[in-house]
Structure formats: C-alpha cells, structure tokens
Design goal:
This protein has a domain at 4-178: TIM Barrel (Alpha-Beta Barrel). 42% of the residues lie in helices and 15% in strands. It has helices spanning 32-44, 56-59, 61-71, 106-120, 139-151, 165-172, 190-193, 196-202, 217-220, 225-241, 245-254, 269-276, 285-296, and strands at 4-5, 12-13, 17-19, 49-51, 80-85, 87-88, 101-102, 125-130, 155-161, 180-183, 207-210, 261-264. It is globular, with a radius of gyration of 19 Å. The relative contact order is 0.12. Mean pLDDT is 94; it is low at 1-8.
C-alpha cells in the first residue's frame, strides 16, 4: 500500500492508524490469539500503524499487545507503533497517583517509556506522543528528554496530542515534532476553525484524527433538529456516492488538504476494509460544505 509522508522527516504512516483503545479491557478484551489474528489481518490490508497509550485498559492494553508480539516477534518489523504518555491516571496499577493529572517532566516521560518498552515487548517506540498538554510543561526539559531517548535508540520520533496551536509551536521550536493527533470529526469541527489544521498544513505535518466518526454520535442519535438534518444529508449523500455513513464521514476528513489520517477504533476487520474502500473516492466541495454546515447547525456566514 502507498504510504503518506507525515512530515519532511522520514516517518511515514499508512492511510489509517489502528486504534487499540477499545481492543483491550476497555472494550473487546482480546486474548492473545485474537490480537495476533487482528494484527496479521491489519498488516495484510496494508495497515501497519498501531496507536496506543500507556493508560489504555488501565495500563494493561500495551502489555496485552506485547504478548502477541512475544508470540510472533517477526510482526514487530512489519509494523509501526505509536504510543502516548503524560497522563497520570489513578488505577489499581498506579496507586501512587492520588488524582488524574498531567506530567511532562523528564522523570515521568522516561519512566513511561521504559514501562511501554517492557509492556510492548519491544526495544524501541516508533512515535511517542505527549497525550495531553501539561499546563506546567517546560519545553526545554521536554526537548532534552526527547533528545536523550532518541540518542539511546528508545524512541525514533516525537509528536503531541490535543495541544493548542500555540502549545504545539512552543514545543516544536525546541525539538521537531512529526505529528499532532487531534479530535476532529463532524461532531468536533473546531480544528477547522481554531488554526490547528492551518498550522500543520503550513508546516507540512499531517494530523492524525482520533474519534473520526464522532463516537458514532450522528449515526445513533437524531434528537435535535441539526442532528436530524445531518442524518438526512448523510443519507442523501450515501445514495449519491454509494457509501455508508461511516465511509462518508471518513471521506469528509480526507478531503481536507492537510491530509488528515483517521485513527480507526474498530475491532472488525470488515470495517477496516470498508474504510480502505474510500481511498479512491472523493467528495465534491459543495457536498463537503453541506455536511459541515449541517454538523455546525447553522448556515455559513
């Protein structure tokens, strides 16, 4: 499968990232055999990027994934692993965390990376993201920590998730970032308007999108006038483009010139195949704006 450069650096991603958040104990609770089957099928489809975070599954999902790699170590060289750190989430495995908070200090980042390496049964992480902006972050300290991890061969590239444009810029001036994972979908339009996508497009850095289907919000609800209107337009355009609503929502994101790469949270490989089917499709600009206006709930100014 053709891959897309995320930046002027050498890192490349597939057309979609495979989100692992709902594959462990927070969702499907895959056993090792199921993980292996799912990973192998994803790779067969040309989807080699797996998106993790240390907190997923109350700090267990990375280790569940790692068991699959332990059983099939040859799979590691065929994939690219993204994981995130920076959130301190109270759980049984982290009793020292009294409350949920953010930490981008050197000690926490290094401890998190060491845990992820051990849990994922790997010697290196391809892309490490700061999961949420730490309002007390010291960009110089983060840059020094990132450089140390890179020099030690433990992390290849770095990025962020859920940062504001100014927070992204502050850190990017200290150390090059290769991606920014943001929430963007028909149910979360703010990145189109707040400068996030503009900034990444200007820097030739493609964003990745978590919850690209808005958690299925519009496909399961129609309580408000705007939701009913959007569902009506999705139905009309589904017939026009011969795609289902989920495929249209992915096509909506892929139309944007920043090159948004959705993170797919499904556990069903047929849904992956459906997503790949839109690769050769495009949506007309007026139809894109019909979806945008309906999702916004008002006519454009």
């Amino acid at each position: 499968m053709r891959q897309t450069s995320l930046s002027k650096k050498s890192v490349k991603f597939s057309s979609y990232l495979i989100g692992t958040m709902r594959l462990g104990s927070w969702g499907e609770n895959f056993n090792t055999s199921q993980w292996i089957d799912f990973i192998e099928k994803s790779l067969e489809l040309g989807l080699r990027d797996f998106d993790h975070a240390d907190i997923y599954g109350d700090y267990t999902t990375e280790a569940d994934f790692g068991k699959a790699l332990k059983d099939r170590p040859n799979l590691r060289t065929e994939m690219q692993i993204t994981t995130k750190c920076g959130i301190k989430m109270p759980s049984e495995s982290r009793p020292k965390y009294a409350l949920k908070s953010y930490d981008s200090g050197e000690e926490h980042i290094i401890e998190s990376v060491e845990n992820s390496l051990r849990n994922l049964q790997t010697d290196y992480i391809d892309i490490l993201l700061l999961h949420r902006p730490d309002f007390l972050m010291n960009p110089a300290e983060i840059a020094t920590t990132f450089s140390k991890l890179q020099e030690e061969g433990k992390v290849k590239y770095f990025g962020v998730s859920n940062f504001t444009p100014s927070q992204f810029e502050m850190l990017n001036t200290m150390i090059p970032l290769v991606t920014h994972q943001v929430e963007v979908s028909l149910s979360h339009l703010s990145p189109f308007e707040n400068g996030t996508l503009d900034q990444l497009q200007m820097k030739n850095i493609q964003p990745t999108a978590w919850s690209p289907l808005g958690g299925g919000h519009f496909m399961h609800k129609g309580n408000t006038k705007s939701e009913r209107n959007l569902n009506h337009i999705l139905k009309r355009l589904s017939e026009k483009y011969e795609l289902n609503a989920a495929q249209l929502m992915l096509l909506f994101l892929k139309k944007h010139p920043s090159g948004i790469i959705p993170v797919l949270g499904t556990s069903k490989t047929d849904r992956l195949e459906e997503a790949l089917a839109v690769k050769t499709k495009t949506i007309e600009k007026e139809d894109w704006y019909a979806l945008y206006s309906a999702a916004k709930g008002e006519e454009l100014a």
